[in-house]
Amino acid sequence: xxxxxxxxxxxxxxxxxxxxxxxxxxxxxxxxxxxxxxxxxxxxxxxxxxxxxxx
Length: 55
Known about the structure:
The protein contains one helix and no strands.
């Protein structure tokens, strides 16, 4: 296998991995508080429904 081709392939692969990692990191940083808030509200709704069912 040609070394130049391998270097180009490895470079594109590394760029893709770094791009995906950066996007995931930014999205988690931006949306993690929103997701946690929504999960908390969902749990509160679930517990409210359970209280209504038992009473």
